């Protein structure tokens, strides 16, 4: 029996050792095949990366094309409002020829998504969820809200862009002063300022680039500058455009006017910062009363309250 058990155990150990050796050799061959495939694919890494990058770039474009096609088939924006919507889109930095169609398509898609969400969640509302009329009203209200959300998003983008342009406009005026002092023409000065502001403030650089391109192709100077002022919608930009138009019209030196305008804009920014600083104290009153005063009162009156409780319990 012992010999039989010994040979049985030896056979099992040999079988286990053989199986382990097979796994090791198989793993080595598997790793070798993986290494070979890796070496073969090294030459195609650049091509694959560029293909992936192109695909990543094309995905938003494909989505925009589909949204634009939907917006063209179902034009939500009326014909008399297209110019106004186009101006607002340009103020937000969207100048593509399909921007209005994309805006219309986004309204439809967002409205439909919210309407479907209202249909799906309306049945879970207590008491009123089973009423078909109420669910229909919820669906209609959700669709209307979804149609309005892209407008609010566009307004947010416009405000954010104007703030960025207003913050960088004094620096742009200083650069224009330097360029005009150097003897550059208006188009060359605007192009140079746009190139310098590309990293600091891309929205303002984009506006200057578009205006310089319009001036380079022979467009009317006053018209191109007025279009930039209308897109930006800032009082400082309107003053800059007025100064440049008058200098071009009457031949007056523009350097001193730009320098004065830059100083005025910086003074206005300082006044705005001082006004914000003056408003800070009243705004801090309510948070202090809610969050700080209860804690201070607890720390100050807590020990006395504990002692009073101990005294009353002793009596």
Instruction: Write the element-wise H/E pattern from the N-terminal end onward.
Output: HHHHHHHHHH
User: Rg to the nearest angstrom?
Assistant: 35 Å
| Helix vs. strand class | mainly alpha
- Assign a percent range to the helix content: over 70%
Shape: flat
| Major β-sheet profile | none
The fraction of residues assigned to DSSP E strands is under 5%
Low-confidence segments, ≥5 residues, pLDDT <50? 27-32, 42-57
Q: Number of helical segments?
A: 10
Distance N to C terminus: 89 Å
Oligomer: single chain
Number of strands: 0
Mean pLDDT across every amino acid position: 76
Summarize the structure.
With 315 residues, the chain is mostly helical.
How is this structure best described in words?
By secondary structure, the chain is mainly α. Helices cover 85% and strands 0% of the residues. The protein has helices spanning 2-42, 45-73, 82-91, 99-122, 132-181, 186-196, 202-216, 221-232, 235-250, 255-314. The protein starts with a helix and ends with a helix. Mean pLDDT is 76; it is low at 27-32 and 42-57.
List the defining traits of the structure above.
single chain; 315 residues; mainly alpha; Type II secretion system F family protein; membrane; transmembrane helix; T2SS_GspF_dom; transmembrane
List the helices and strands and how they pair.
Layout: H1 2-42, H2 45-73, H3 82-91, H4 99-122, H5 132-181, H6 186-196, H7 202-216, H8 221-232, H9 235-250, H10 255-314
Helix pairs in contact: 2-4, 4-5, 5-6, 5-10, 6-7, 7-8, 8-9, 9-10
